[in-house]
Amino acid sequence: MNQEDQLGAADLVLLQLGRRLQADGYQFITPTPLTHQRVNDRWAGQSAKTLRDVFGWSRPFEPGLLSADEQRQLQQADILEDSHGRLKSRVRWSSLDNLLFVHSGFPTDAADSVFFGPDTYRFAQLIHARLQQTFTPIRRAVDIGCGAGVGAIVIARARREAEVLAVDINPAALRLTAVNAALAQVTNVSIEASDVLQDVDGNFDLIVANPPYMADPAERAYRHGGGAFGAQLSMRIVEQALYRLAPGGSLVLYTGVAMIDGRDPFLEALAPRLESAMFSWTYRELDPDVFGEELLTPGYQQVERIAVVALIVTRIGPGIEGRVESASGG
Asked: What is the model's pTM?
């Protein structure tokens, strides 16, 4: 399908902006929120001077930095907001491989913010690695909780013959995924509203997910994973995905785990669900310590560290032998 034909007027303005940034050679690697804030603190009170300042660092800028026509279009599309007499973009643009992705501006305080950051880069690398390692044909794939659509678009570009679904409960995420798919010129991505897999039918050769994994008091969609330590949604994804895999199909889950007293509570809860001879699986830590500042927040007093992990589950098909492997990073 032609994603551009599905876009509303405001989103077409976003697409035009993305194409302009691409043509200008714009690049921006998005850091963690803490790093972003620390860098911006150095520039406190100063106006943005470049497009990277405006659309990467989310810094306010003076009218006149953009052309009058472009500024007017962006304001009419509600992409710019007033910031104490200056203007500020509601969105950021980030580079991944040779693509640009639009997502929410900094800080991501709104309940429907669409997040992009270091987890996104690791998630994309995990999918790339899986696609390089498997020779199973991928006819149908789905990115659960697609956010800015990175997982779906990475798969769609690598497997042009596949039907790729991008699903999310957040309408803002679905809108930005449509813009990003149009900018990436992928025509094999379908975008649908779904709570995990409840609202889509059929089985899949590849299921990927990078869900929120924090316990967020504000319950922001991109951040709150549910449960005491944010693992509830990740477990729901596993439970729904296992029996929606086609024979030989795989689930690739990238998530975070709050480690307590040297234990991995997520793995402990997960293992019994994967004991069936129907499945082969691997589990490993990709980074043993992320978002350390969260240990200062209420509810995390017992947590030693937050690790990001990769779970890959394959439904046994012809010629596939069952195996279990668990590895911890250190």
From this structure: 0.93
